[in-house]
Amino acid sequence: MNMEQRSSRRTVMIVLLPLLLIAFSIYGLSYGSVSISFQEIWGVFTSNSQPMQEKIIMNLRLPRILIGLLVGACLATSGCLLQGVMKNPLADPGIIGVSAGGGLAAVISMILFPQYSYLLPVLAFGGSMVTSLLIYLLAWDKGASPLKIILAGVAINALLAAVTSGIMIIYSDRVQAVLPWLAGGLNGRSWYHLEFMAPYAIFGLLLSVFTIKASNLLMLGDDSAHLLGQKVELQRFLIIALSSFLSGTAVSVAGLIGFVGLVVPHAIRMIVGDDYRFLLPLSVIGGAALVVLADTMARSWFDPIELPVGILLAGIGTPFFLYLLKKRRIV
């Protein structure tokens, strides 16, 4: 692909993705168990609507869409940063164990200490952060290479999954309350959850802007980055910590939603290239758009039941992953 073609593709994506995000958000406000027209949605925001429509939009759908937007943006940014710092398109917060840490903390909270369920977002967030630190320490040996971090993450992921399963088997009579959270979803999320996660999500997303230069240099390799005056290990640690922070923020309110951090950055990279000046912001918008769309589909296409959005995204992400494997684009 020559520079002119890549520039043209970037321009198209810069215009297309925000439009898709707006369209998917309007779609999410319109459809569900009760359909609401665009004119009626407009009436809600101009104080010219029916009370029932206003309650549906303002109390149920709008906070859920805003949470989905932030969750998708956080997961996609997390995956984008991990893929760059580890130079591996398989790097994803779900694959290297960060999400599993939050999941274990949440399971312990819901099963063993249900009286503290109101602390679930905080505990899930803390579990993700502690797991990321543990992975980095295990991989450290006069430095932490991307390969060691991935291997340590895969091992920790397997261990945490086993511990989680063991707790669920021992306390099988209490598992029903945990399953929806483990499947990942936004059902029942409200303004309370948005108020909890928004400051962390916005702070993390803003910090990610300052990683663009470092991510581009790390993509050149450790030796080249050293020659260009970069403190490779410090930058790698800070980027991984930020990625874990964003993943933990998303997990804390949405549960274990997978594949967003894998699919979105890699798909956009295939279109616009590896330059993080374009890749990172487009991944933010793409992740937000994907989760908002998937959540709307999950709650409206399978009426009268609501499918957890994590299951739907796994159904989308797995074929994409197999496509990459077939095309040998993941190595």
Question: What shape does the CA trace take?
Answer: globular
Helix content: over 70%
What CATH calls the topology is: ABC transporter involved in vitamin B12 uptake, BtuC
* Biggest sheet layout: none
Please trace the helix and strand order, writing H or E for each element.
Answer: HHHHHHHHHHHHHH
- Per CATH, which architecture? Orthogonal Bundle
Determine the N-to-C terminus distance: 19 Å
Count of extended strands = 0
CATH homologous superfamily grouping: ABC transporter involved in vitamin B12 uptake, BtuC
Number of domains: 1
DSSP strand content: under 5%
Alpha plus pi helix count: 14
Class computed from helices, strands and strand pairing: mainly alpha
The CATH class assignment is Mainly Alpha
Mean pLDDT: 84
Low-confidence stretches: none
Radius of gyration of CA atoms, rounded to a whole number: 20 Å
Question: How would you describe what is shown here?
Answer:
By secondary structure, the protein is mainly α. It has a single domain (6-327), classed as ABC transporter involved in vitamin B12 uptake, BtuC (Orthogonal Bundle). 75% of the residues lie in helices and 0% in strands. The chain contains 14 helices and no strands. It has helices at 3-30, 38-45, 51-85, 98-112, 120-139, 146-170, 179-183, 191-209, 212-218, 222-227, 232-254, 260-272, 276-300, 309-327. The longest helix is centred in the N-terminal third of the chain and has 35 residues, at 51-85. The protein is globular. The model has no long low-confidence stretch (mean pLDDT 84).
